[in-house]
Amino acid sequence: LSPVFAEFSSKDKGTSGAQFLKIGPGARPAGMGEAFSAVSDDIHGLYYNPAGLASLRAVEFGGMHNQYFQSLDYNFGAVAVPVQRFRHKKEEMPEDANGVLGLAVYNLSVNDLQRRGLSDSNIPSGTFGASDSAYALSYARRMGKGLSLGVTGKAIMQKIDDKSATSFAMDAGALLRRECAARVSGDCAVSAGLRNLGTRPKFDRASDPLPLLLYTGGSFRMFHRLTLALDLDFPRDNEMQVAVGAEYTHPFSEAFNASLRGGYYTQNTDPSGLAGLSLGAGLGYKQVSFDFAWVPFGVLGNTFRYSVLLKF
Questions:
Q1: What is the pLDDT of residues 233-264, one digit of tens each?
Q2: Which helix or strand (DSSP H or E) is residue 7 part of?
């Protein structure tokens, strides 16, 4: 698979549209270098691997704000609901309850861009804005023996000044989780899937394909505290990319815990600076958690991601 995609992506480098679809949501995954497809145990599975939603037993709300360089704003909001919660209260849900629905909104926007080129003068003739949004609906289900499957449908809407484009895409994923180290209370997981298989967005006559990506990954969690993860990404418009990450969670009590995270993602590397590295931290109290991640982008500057997760 890797040699095939290396040859395919070398000739298609930089040819995909809707690049905002490559931005992964959530400060927790970002702190782990986005090595999350085989972890995928919370609301962020909506993006990284929809099959992971099948493990959710409670309703989850999640949101993130990311202040990018050059005044770019990225925002994410999502909710996931076990299907049985439409008919039962949380404490009345049957043990074999199955099926989880998820809804997510992604938005990247920038305002006050200077409009030039309408005259021979270099003086700006006004300002305009640009916005990219995706609206996603996911469904995941446990298939038995540790295997879960998930699928997502997305409507993608882009606007630059008075020009707009609409396209549609789907994601699909599989996640297999098994106990693999009984002496250290460990479990292993492997994942595989694809993102952004769909139609081309069109601005006037211009048409670029979506940033299709295949992925596979693995994770190992021991003592319910330390998680190690690895992802291999195969994008249609670039070489293979590697993400590695780690998360350590320390429970101070039944209600309160804290986490430290670190990772490295080759997609974000830059000849200078610390680009590619990421660091993060999180605090959890009962059903609420707050996460933070620092992700540098070399000469472009630093980005800081903040996200909140609620369970009930």
A1: 999 988 999 999 999 999 999 999 999 999 99
A2: helix 2-11
